[in-house]
Fold each of these.
Amino acid sequence: MATLDRTLSKEAFSPALTAQRSASMGSRMTYSRLIGALFLAGFVVYGVGFGLTSSVTGAPDFLSTISAHQSTLVLGTFLLLLNTPVDVGKAVLFFPIVENYGKRTALAYLAAIIVEVVLLTVGALCLLMLVPLSQQGVDAGGAKPSAHS
């Protein structure tokens, strides 16, 4: 038993094994920091994009004023679309981690992220379609005031 303990303790403190553990921990920390940075980037990029687009679309009778605030809407929509590669990056980096809990779980997570990205992209593209729609309204003579105001 004493021989086994000495052998295990020698292996536990061998330079090769220590270097391998250190490299593994360094790689894992880098991986974790990258995932965390992507989460923060996603929050910031989508949050700023949402703020910019809602400042334009939240105004009363916003279709008549979109042409005046077109650059704000386009920049906000671009930031919303920039969230797409961030979410895809998170899914790709998380896949091996989630795969440890099961292949089905990992594939379900990946499928959910793909659905999320597609729906967010369609929503952002719909915001971009407001620009030509408002331009047609301005060309047609502007918005008529409603009888309820």
Amino acid sequence: MFTVIWPDALLALLLEMPEHEAGLILEIASRLQIIPDVFPVTENPSTFKGCRACVAGHWTVYYRRVGNEVFIRGLWDDRFPPLD
């Protein structure tokens, strides 16, 4: 089983989100504890290049696995255009 590590800023953001949205993101995170390599590595030139990405509702969750730990690197609200 892998350990999922969240930055404090993202945990604070989850607490401010509507319960349904935060629940979808946390559900994805719980799956990452079991099979973190199931999602592809992002290739697009962005802040999260080289991270893996998965979708939870209208949020994209970016993460990177290092050893037995999964580091959540960021969340992106897909209702906004991506950064170039």
Amino acid sequence: MSRALSKHRLEALVDGIFAVAMTLLVLDIKLPDDLTFGSDRELWEHLLSLERHLVIYVITFVVTGRYWLAHHLQFHFVHAVDRRMIGLNLLFLLIVSFLPFVTDLVGDHKELALPCIFYGATLIVLNAVALAHVRYLRRHPALVTAEFTPEIAWHFERRTLLFMIVPAASMVIALVDTHAALYIYALMAVGYLAGNPITDRVVHAAHDAQRHEAAPTTIGEGSERYP
């Protein structure tokens, strides 16, 4: 077995890559430098022409945020990492950093099905790596805390599998209607906003830990509390 390492540097790298990827998404939404508008109506009409860019930007931003949250929740149960787990995370980040490119591809080619297929395939591969990450943790209990029960692992796996359905459906729909293929991703946003018992459990645990740390200590039975 590989030697266990601290998880904190990996967490910092993950946060940095996600922050850069989510920032790069907005750079594709821009007005031409050499184009001026003589009236508010002309400007409004041009902004409406950016609909596809705006929609795929919002979709990818929400989806990327969902992947960051899922990764953050998983690492709540991780207390150490090894070389193979680092490799899995680097592969995960490689795909995350690819999202701005496929997002731009979808925004620039609204009549073509291939960009939608590339986009859906990227999300499916990203989910597959996330699924492999959870299963790796299940097979290596030395890397996780006792809180990472089979029930919690199965919850992560189930949600990851469910989020593979939407991009797969979008890839099929794109062969008929590229507009509808884009808007079906709204289902992922709905799933993201739906309640998550694992999120609630982690938040409550963190809140309880903070309250415990903030509680005043006592010395001896019946002694006064120190501020």
